[in-house]
Design a protein that fits this description.
The complex is a heterodimer of chains A (112) and B (111). Chain A is an all-beta fold. Chain A is built from no helices and eleven strands. Chain A is 0% helix and 58% strand. The chains are: A mainly beta (112), B mainly beta (111).
């Protein structure tokens, strides 16, 4: 099994719908992150969490929310999806005091 | 405001030759720099890193150079192999906070 698992792998949704992307990890890391990848823009940070009670906004948090349900689970929600949220979304984890990120395989989201 | 920039979206080299991928940054507070490699349908994987107190770090065929005065780092791959074909992301962080990534450079190594 993968260390960082993202579900679903692919999703097509309609404008205005609420959608949740889920991430779970078996690394035992305290820190978890959500990034989105867009062509020409690389990976941009949406939200991050340094422990279960800690949630922080990243560069592009508008239109998104997150929930850290447990050390191992960090979900990303789009409350009302819009087409410019079409992107590849990555979850990542890292240990406290460590710099190596472990990424999931990504969720490709298309908003039509 | 992109604090980490990779100005070359793509690079093509011949197998056996050197690949040089470049990265510039604007935030002088960054104290650690990393390179990640990404294959299609997979998440990025860590490749090599360098602390701001060093100017070079080497790991096998991969070497990262840091020029703090120019706010520039580069990744050298020697010799390049077809399996190195991937997208390479430069990343930077300070005080072990969240990491900022560049836009990526797609490297193609031709046999």
């Amino acid at each position: 099994d993968a260390d960082v698992t993202q579900t679903p792998r692919n999703r097509i949704t309609k404008t205005g719908k609420r959608i949740m992307l889920e991430c779970s990890q078996t690394k035992g890391h305290d820190r978890m992150y959500w990034y989105r990848q867009d062509p020409g823009l690389g990976l941009r940070l949406i939200y991050y969490s340094f422990d279960v009670k800690d949630i922080n906004k990243g560069e592009i948090s508008d239109g998104y929310s997150v929930s850290r349900q447990a050390q191992a689970k960090f979900s990303l929600s789009l409350e009302s999806a819009i087409p410019n949220q079409t992107a590849l979304y990555f979850c990542a984890t890292s240990p406290t005091g460590g710099l190596g990120y472990t990424f999931g395989s990504g969720t490709r989201l298309t908003v039509v | 405001d992109q604090q980490v920039k990779q100005n070359s979206p793509s690079l093509s080299v011949q197998e056996g030759r050197i690949s040089i991928l470049n990265c510039d940054y604007t935030n002088s507070m960054f104290d650690y720099f990393l390179w990640y490699k990404k294959y299609p349908a997979e998440g990025p994987t860590f490749l090599i890193s360098i602390s701001s107190i060093k100017d070079k770090n080497e790991d096998g065929r991969f070497t990262v150079f840091l020029n703090k005065s120019a706010k520039h780092l580069s990744l050298h791959i020697v010799p390049s192999q077809p399996g190195d074909s991937a997208v390479y992301f430069c990343a930077a962080t300070y005080n072990n906070n969240d990491m900022r990534f560049g836009a990526g450079t797609r490297l193609t190594v031709k046999p």
